[in-house]
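On clarity, I found the account of how folds are encoded harder to follow than it need be. For illustration, here is how one protein appears when written out as sequence plus structure tokens.
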Amino acid sequence: MPNGVRRKPLIAVDSNVLLDRANDDELVIDALDTVRRRLPTCELIATPTVIEEIVLKAQRGDTPLDRRLARRVLASLVELWGFRPLSFIPVGRGIVAEIARQLRRQGLIPESEMNDSLIVAEAGLIGATLLVSSDAHIQDLDYARLKLVLDAADVATPLVASPFKIVNRFF
């Protein structure tokens, strides 16, 4: 990056945060407002796995409410809520898959939680400063162990925080 040019902090979110936002969850709304206030130049990001999960839930969610909330996310994500959805070129998807595999292999995320490991890997690959998650498999990650795995892959290690933690520690 040229001298003096600073990159906007990227803030990634997991699918549950977006679904809670669609359900007008006050804690999530407050957390996102807090992030925007504390990091006014940040860019809110929805990674490919998050978008895929939301699309799948909109099509085949377990309940009518799940499907309705997912459709609301898709309708509101960019224009109303100001998120930028990302996609990766095929090489990026391969890197993400390998990082995700390492996260599961190292026991940071259970083997059964493939998408959670992909979301964390995607956040690292894009250089996210923060990953906001209400999923216990993500928000309870051991930062030191996470950093070792992501450093080995030569990607950034985002701070991981729940909406509750953001509101109560940074408000």
Remarks:
- The first strand starts at residue 10 and ends at 13.
- The chain has one domain: 10-170.
